[in-house]
Model the fold of this input.
Amino acid sequence: MDAAALKAIQAPLKSRYRDDPAAAVVTLSADGELDGTGVACRVKTAAALAEAGLHPASGGDGTQLCSGDMLLEALVACAGVTLRAVATALGIEAGGTVRAEGDLDFRGTLGVAKDAPVGFRAIRLAFELRTGASEEEVATLLKLTERYCVVLQTIRSAPATSVDVRVAAAG
Done:
């Protein structure tokens, strides 16, 4: 896809969202199934059913996906797609790789040390680009990618999050 094609696809959306801001608000969702066979949750994705379980550092055997890995994978996917969209819009040829790393202290997750955080204490996102773009163009590409990457901005801003439970009779 080139810049003109991307702009043609996005122009009516941008116009609609300017005219009707409420139309731009979309609720995304994810569903999982607690199947009762071990410590796992089956997550429905667009293409498959992914089974998440415990990371080996918390007792898993490594055969199931770790939700922490999935978070980093979502960050890589979003940052990569966003970078490609921005590069396309700017007419910049850019290939390469995207990598996310995060540091977890499993003492927090396992309740071993109350002072150890539960969750990532640091996340690093890195791009290794192959491009003929100038330093200024690469800086603009990175700045806009950071600004428009949904997952990165969500992690950075820590939005209000609620937890709800509904209990149905077992049986």
Notes: The longest strand covers residues 120-131. The CA atoms of residues 106 and 112 lie 8 Å apart.
